[in-house]
Amino acid sequence: MFVRPHTFYLARAQSRLWSTLALLLSLLTMGACDKTPSPSINPLLTEGQQVPRFVLDAISGGGTASNSLNQKMLVVNFWATWCPPCRREMPSLEQLSKTLNSNNFVVIGLSVDEDVMLASEYLIQNKITFANYFDKGGVIAKRLGLLAYPETFVIAPNRTLVRRMTGFHDWSSPEMVKILEELFQTQTGKTTTTAVESGYKK
Hints:
Helices cover about 40% and strands about 15% of the residues. The protein is an alpha/beta fold and about 200 residues long.
């Protein structure tokens, strides 16, 4: 079958346009931001796979190896100051970090901002105190195959990815806290309580 060249290219352009519109619509539905991500270094990391080890650079300076957190369940949130849904869910992540039992959980933020000072100023101005690190150049985001922000990874103590959640979520809701505690119990065979129930105060 012969198709005139201009007709072929027009059809291909229209197909790309509809694909782009579909992606944008899905991101808006999830409450997520897209910043034309670079191709991933590795294929998309899926639930049940092992999360690769990496070094976290603290926004305030210094570094932490991810394997030093192996004994706890991690809630790792990728965010940026240019992303409205990211900023909107930050207060609920702050509350989550105070609600979960710190003996069993760690809430971590990973900023993909190009300017670390901008991220630092945002955290200070909004009184965000849970651990936040800087993903310079989006290296870790690329390794994990991020496509939109915010995106949150729930990682078991053995480094298995148990949940991958894209878009805005109310992390401080009782339902979300219950989900995380049940995931901890399923992955470790241990029960956990909130910081209030255990008598722990930050």
